[in-house]
Design brief:
single chain; 63 residues; mainly alpha; Arc Repressor Mutant, subunit A; 0% strand; globular
Length: 63
């Protein structure tokens, strides 16, 4: 979420997201089709109460 907040969805690449998450780009693509899917999963996880301040991203696949 930090990358989207800092650079916006348009300027953030899957490579940027993978690097921030500490995984390879292909690993990210194995779980998500595109960055819209990543953003959707982050929003779902946050609204369901699975955000990092609560101890994890349990609602995000692969996290």
């Amino acid at each position: 979420m930090r990358m989207f907040s800092r650079y916006g969805v348009q300027r953030t690449s899957m490579g940027d997201l993978a690097k921030e998450a500490g995984v390879g780009r292909q690993t990210l693509y194995n779980v998500f089709r595109n960055k819209d899917d990543v953003l959707g999963a982050l929003i779902r996880a946050y609204t369901e109460g699975h955000h990092p301040a609560d101890g994890g991203m349990g609602g995000v696949p692969g996290a």
